[in-house]
Amino acid sequence: MAESQPALPFQSRNLRAALEYARRGFQVFPVAGKIPATPHGFKDASLDPAQIARWWSGPEGHGIGLPTGAVNGVLVLDVDPRNGGDESLAALIREHGPFPDTPVQRTGGGGRHYFFSYPGGTINCSHPWLGLDIKANGGYVVVPFSRHPSGGTYEWEPGHALGTIPLAPPPAWLLNPPKADASEAIKALDSTIWFPKGTRGVSLLSLAGTMRRCGMEPEAIFAALMVENEIKCKPPVPEYRVRGIITSIARYTPGDPVRPDVPAPETEFARRSLKGVLDPAAGRVTYLVEGLIPKGDLTLMAASWKSGKTLLAYRLALDAARGVPFLGQFAIDHPIPTAIFQQEMPFHEDERRFRRLGLGAGMSPEEIVALGESTLFHYNRLPIFLGDRQGAARFHAMVLDQGIELVLIDSLLANFAGTNLNDNSESRLAFSLAFNPLTSRGVTILLLHHYKKIQATDNGLDQRSLVLGAQAWAAASGRIYALEPVPIERTPVAPGTFRVRLSSLGSWTPGESATLVEVRDDGEGTTIEVMESNDEATRFARISTLLVTLVRERKSIRRKDAFAAVSQALFPDICPARTFERAVTRAVGQKLIESTRTKTTPSEAIFTPVPPEP
Description:
The chain is of the alpha+beta class. Helix content is 34%, strand content 20%. Helix 6 (200-213) runs antiparallel to helix 7, helix 6 (200-213) packs across helix 8 and helix 17 (536-554) packs across helix 19 (577-589).
């Protein structure tokens, strides 16, 4: 395999490389970033030049995957420097001696892959040391000249390309790593184990959780973490992130587990009390984003492909992480730790989106970066899938460890690869496994999903039936929104400008709650502006204003008369009774009106204004 090629279009270069690997006897398959781009992943790998030409002849820009293990006769040691792999390997080489001469590649993410001949027998993938993985049966690696999701390129070390030098046999210690040796190799690094970039936040949070379980107070934990941060984090994280960790763990009672990944049976299956029904506000929806996204529930946003749903969701993530009203209209009462799990777009594309959306929202690039270091977490093309137990467990750990309150899944299809989303039973199991352990702890989930490839008017179908896949997904969602394009009547329309309507399909009559937004991209920033709205948040604000004004004018008014008067003033819009009761509760709580009950009709309240304070 040649170590370098003349400048060629990315796809042509990879087609030539894939054909060359196959000519040398190595089966290959296409990948998107690190994710297989074929239905059965590495099991579809082929030596057939015609099949390879079909895979790499399109415009997708696929990288090259190479299965490891017996199928290709290779065993690979994967060194991940972000998780301590360089230090672990250095300690092991000091103990056992250097590797023999063998093919080596630099990965696009800054790591290295050492290729050895497969010795036979049954060797599966494993993770025997910190930052070191063995890729064998059941695994694969991405090979040159593929692009990494970070934008880097996989390259062979000079003079060490696969096929130009023989595969060396793997060292004996690599095939049979004693458990004791693993820990000793790590201890040999230094008397202090440090936390490399990419693991610092999770590691500090784990330490903080241990101290909290031992009964330590937040002030003492902060002091201890600052010392550990200075000594063990390379480089140390900013102080505000340590304070964020303290804020997160302070919510837990000393002695309680901070990350209850596997709750004890008595708490997981505990009988639930119904004493909440004694509260007159029982069943009232609590919003994370006022009038739009309920707290601790599943919200689904469905749209056709390339409709702008990711732009709208990313703007929501920016506003939520800052604690400012979404699009200047939907109230958010505090900065919300928000995580995005993106499996469709490469990271450099997401960086471009965040820059333009941030600039369009009035943020500076420095403010966007600072947000990404504090309350906005972005995970791009992770090698985990939420439809299996192991992937779901890792997902829960990432969310709970970071104290995430809002999770954005883009998209449902990509994050649940391998799950039959058309099967109701399999879908119910998948979302119960992935989301119930989080929503039961108050985490809010926003799922981005697609429509079926038919129009809403076909056969008179209800729009909710057009959500792609099994109806179990729609049934499990507390709120369902449709995002649909709307023509712009004015002319001319600037390039990069379009309109969409966000309307509810779940809890209300379809179309009862809708917000029309215009997206404008001038090549520098992406602005999203609300053009008109009859959403619940706007309706709630209008009802609250009408109620307080009415009570102040009438001086005294019965509840049913106030409801009738507000409904009449709001016509032709609707005044739902539940929204009216929320407006009453807020007005009373803000001491704008008083609500008293008469002796003759205890069920009927009388509203009176609260006199202004002198």
